[in-house]
Amino acid sequence: MDHLRLIFASTALLLLISVGSADAQTNGARAYEGWAFNLGAFDIIDSDKSPELGVEYRFEPFELWRLDLTPVIGLSGTSDGSYWGYGGFRWDLPLPSERWITTLGFAVSAYEQGDGKDLGGVVEFRSSIDLAYRLRNGSRVGLSFYHLSNARIYDLNPGSESLVFSWSLGR
Description:
11% of the residues lie in helices and 51% in strands. The protein has 1 helix and 9 strands. Strands 1-2-4-5-6-7-8-9 form an 8-stranded antiparallel beta barrel. The longest helix has 19 residues, at 2-20. 37% of the residues are buried.
């Protein structure tokens, strides 16, 4: 039950941050808000890979220290019964082409092991890099690679890496 409280508290905090920043100036070419759906493989470097499915909501970006940060909340899970909810931020990096976008991300996660990999504890951190192509309608398709680990706040910290295909709807 404490896991769910952590997920809901993180979600509420991100909603408050994004509502308060709705009027912030953003780079129009990079502004994005909407749903993203992910499908791929969890723990790709280890021998116990499993299919992964996830959904994420990306809020309107806001400017902080000259960076356009996008608050996100999400939920992912594997076929082994592991799942995690997370909240954090994404940062689109400019590329020469307006169609291609690379994005760095960081989030705090609440992890439930299920029958899957033991990552050491409930609190995990998710760091990611994405490469996506912006379609004419504003949606994006791309690949995301991310690492999920507890940054050694527990005795056990094996971490995991995921590679997922992402399709995001937005404007």
